[in-house]
Fold this protein.
Amino acid sequence: KKMKEQISNANFPRDKEDRVYHIGVRVGDIANRIITVGDHVRARKIAKLLDSEEETGHPIFERTSQRGFLTITGRYKDVPVSIMAIGMGNPMMDFFVRETRASVEGTLAIIRFGSCGSLSQLAPPGAVIVPSAGYCIRRNIDYFAEKPIYPELKDKPYLFSGNFKADEKMTDILSKTLESALAPLESENDVGPILTGGLNADGCSFYSSQGRFDPDFWDDNENLLKEIVTNYPDTLSIEMETSMLFHLARCAHDPSKPIKAAGCMQVFADRLANTFISPEVVSVLEPIVGKACLDALIQVEIENEMPIEGSVWE
Ligand code: R1P
Ligand code: URA
């Protein structure tokens, strides 16, 4: 039987070859410019747009970790980029951002390309939202506990965080790139519009903390969508990772290693009209948005991009 590899350093675990524990990569495997998505299928579709190995003379790096993180690194229009699928939710975003930060030198420019629910009539399924900031809505499990350790936390079933900003310049580049990519399609397909500048909410669940009703559980979330509008009337989108990305970008405090982050989400669920996007619209929209994300990503100014060497590039 194959022995599991020895891991060193319980504080920030890595294997013998220096790969971080959950995403399974090491320095040289990830580019400074990254597109992150939830699902592997979307990541692989975007990866088809990378320059081919024949064109570049460099292999495209690909690794799926035991924990399901997928990293694909290559070049797009000659610029090194990575496409990373991370799964769902704030904890996965935390694994991705921290372990990626530990595996790349210099500035990180990260664009999240996700899907979301819409809380605005201006953003039906097929629209794309480019938020300028985001906050988190967390289920307050103390509200549901018989004996909370802190009784003062017992009165609210859901807690709202403050706002965290996206990188302004990156958001502007992304928005413009999306506008010009989608404009030719908007009249004939159910795609668009692009909405830039509202707020994104990350729920800690797809269900209770996004105001979905589930008869099998005690959730006390009947007023949650109204509370969102009261607390943050500019909210356009609700999903599960983008605000966490903005939050962690703010908390990356080494000035020589900043994280610049922006996000765009295709609207899958209209939470006001209770409708969902069709697969046909996704198949038109997703490749266009994916390409626009790559085109935006390579325009971002990066002061200290890693030299193109290391395991991926040899
Ligand atoms: C839920 O269906 C998932 O879809 C959204 C949410 O944030 C959550 O991860 O994004 P992705 O399509 O990128 O996964
Ligand atoms: N992703 C979410 O998290 N929520 C939605 O409603 C749709 C996609």
